[in-house]
Structures are given as C-alpha cells and as structure tokens.
Amino acid sequence: MSDLSIFVDESGDLGEISRYYLVTFIVHDQADDIEHTVSLYERALRNKNLDDLPFHFGPLLTGHEHYENLEIEMRKQHLAAFRIFAEQSPYFYHPFIYRKKTFGKDTDRLLRALKMDLANFLADNLAFFQQFDKVKVYYDNGQSDVARILHDAIEFALSKEAIVYRIVSPADYRFFQLADYICGIELTAAKYERGTSMKTDEAFFGGSSNFKKNYLKKIRKKLLR
Hints:
The chain has helices at 35-47, 57-62, 72-88, 107-124, 126-130, 144-157, 174-193, 199-205, 208-220; strands at 3-11, 20-29, 92-99, 134-139, 163-167. The chain has one domain (3-220): Ribonuclease H-like superfamily/Ribonuclease H (Nucleotidyltransferase, domain 5, 2-Layer Sandwich), CATH 3.30.420.10. The two termini are 26 Å apart. It has a 5-stranded mixed sheet, with helices on both faces. The chain is globular. The protein is of the alpha/beta class.
C-alpha cells in the first residue's frame, strides 16, 4: 500500500493585520524515508549546542516565543540548520500566495480564490495524487474556513475513502515545521519582489540577491506546479 502525506500550513491572517496570506502544501511520498535527514538535522543542532526547538519561521526572525532569549547569531544558526534539512529532505511543495490588497476587505472573495486555485492544482496533478492508496492530510485547523475548503476540495478531487485528516501540532512533525519554513521563504520572496522587505529580512538574508541565491532557488527545485 502506498501512502502520501500532505502537510498544510499558512502564513498571515484573513483579517487586516498582514499584507499577504499564504497556504503551503508539503507533499511527501511515505516510501521516501526521512529518518536520515531528520537525524542529520538533529545532529547539526547538537554539534552547534542548539536546543531542539520546534522550528517557527516568524518568531525565529523576530526573536519571539521560544526564541526570545536567543541572540540573533544563535537564531541564524537555527535557520541555517533547518535550511539544510529543507534542502536535503524528499518532498514537493506548492504555495498559494495572495496579496490581500487585491481583495480589499472582502475575505469571502479571497477564500473563493483559494478554493478555486486549490481545485485547479489538484486537477492539474490528479494523476500524481491518484497513484496513492491513501492520502493523509495534516493541518492544525488554524482557520476554520480554510479547513472547510481543504476538506471540500480534496474530497471532491480524490476518493473520500483514501483520505485521513489529522489535526496536528508543529512540535509533533518535522514536515509540519517544514511547511512553516516554506511559507516563510515564499512570504519573504513576495516581500523582496514588491520592495516591502523588513529590517529582519535584511539581517537574516542579506538582501534580495543573496536570498534568491542561497534560499529561494534551492527550495524552488522542489516546487510542484
């Protein structure tokens, strides 16, 4: 029996706080073992005397949550270790990226766009998804509307019998943390592209050219269109 895992994470909000809203799919064929890359990542943390924290992109850059007592150089080391894990692990990903200014305050319109884009993505890659006996979707149910869209779109495109939904915490799965990392990288790319990068982006990535060379190009090799 062949199983596929889909880890779903989001960045931004549906309200008026953030400029962008992103939803990212991490697609992993469970036949592709990740124990090796996970062990290399955990070894890298130990070698650098870093705590094994659940990776969280935004707080890492800003020094919040469990990164609040870490100096920026230490946080950079956390980012570097996870970057290597992200580049070496076996998976594909697809981001859905929305500039909220395009939708004004019409949240329903944004959600309709997400639902349509998700349906088109599944349709375009239907042969890939249907080769698996079981598809397991992992999501933390952060947004109830997004959870409903995920259920509706995936169950419409795939057999209901082939789907298992699991509500998860980022601390439970490395690939859920990976989805958060991809959201952060794609969000940073959108900010650099539109000239809205922040001082924290510059501090960690060293400008647009360095970011594209050392982060974006490497991760885009895993893009599932």
